[in-house]
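Hi F.,

I've been meaning to write this up properly since the lab meeting, where we talked about keeping a consistent format for the predictions we share between groups. The idea is simple: the sequence comes first, exactly as it goes in, then the structure tokens exactly as they come out, then a line or two of notes. No screenshots and no reformatting. I'm using this chain as the first example so we have something concrete to point to.
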Amino acid sequence: MALTYEIDSKLKELSPIIDEHAEWYNRVMRAVFYPERSGDPFDPPQSFNTWMHSAAQDDFVAKVTLERLRKIQVELYEMASDLMHEALTSGARPDFKIYDEFTNLYDDLVYQLRRMEHDAVQADTGMDVATGLRSKKAMTIDLEREMERRARRGKPFCLAIAQIDSYDQIRGLVTEERHREILAAVARLIKKCIRSFDDAYRSGDGEFIMCLKHSDVAGGTAANNRLRRYLEEEAIVVQDEKGRNFTLTMSSCVAEPLPGDSLEDLLANMRNDLTRFHSMAPGSTTLEYFEQSPLSRYVQELDS
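Output, unedited:
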């Protein structure tokens, strides 16, 4: 689909915003590490708020995406203010963990803006209509980028697959409307499990994937445990052909990709392990996945 003049104009407004944030980030870093040589450098770029307001009015970007950007922006600005206040009052360098969190948050804001440019240019919002999560098509592009960042910059991230148990059976029992309601309810709970800069996708029939930035397996397992708790609290009910009610459950698998991993192989191994584990322990379960070499997997399959 060809870009309209209006969309093209909105896209051209994003690059200056990214440039302004790069300049602002450098000024903040100067104030944090050399407070005695800085004036009043904070003044966050106002163009971002102006653009957000315009995009919301014109329905240029999905509301869920705008809200997500707003949350990242607010958290980034608050953290910058705290960092500079601490530098001015104590004169000490910031704790490395806090500095790293601020830098990662800035990187994520720029990444989200760049991704929005890409999605719009491709005439694809990158959103799954039924759930409001990102689409399977967008997932492949996003995760390949994360794998590249993992290999190039050493920044860890975690993947979590969550599958609706007995999905095919449920799909055959409910109406199309109820099916959409179930997917939307699960997506809403998944959104509660992740942070503003994480990503979640509807990756297939009854399958969802969470990409948890700057997290290891323990962080992914915690997110899945939150999902299990929310499911128990929500108690999404499905009725079988005999009129009996049962509560929807999900099974999940967590993995921390390593540099050099193949995304396709990683997801395939996670799905296979989850299927095998679920067949032995059905219900709402979480499997912590650790990468194995092809030889180790071959030996394991021979022993099973």
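Notes:
Confidence is low (pLDDT under 50) at residues 289-304.
Residues 5-33 form the longest helix (29 residues).

If this format works for you, I'll send the rest the same way.

G.
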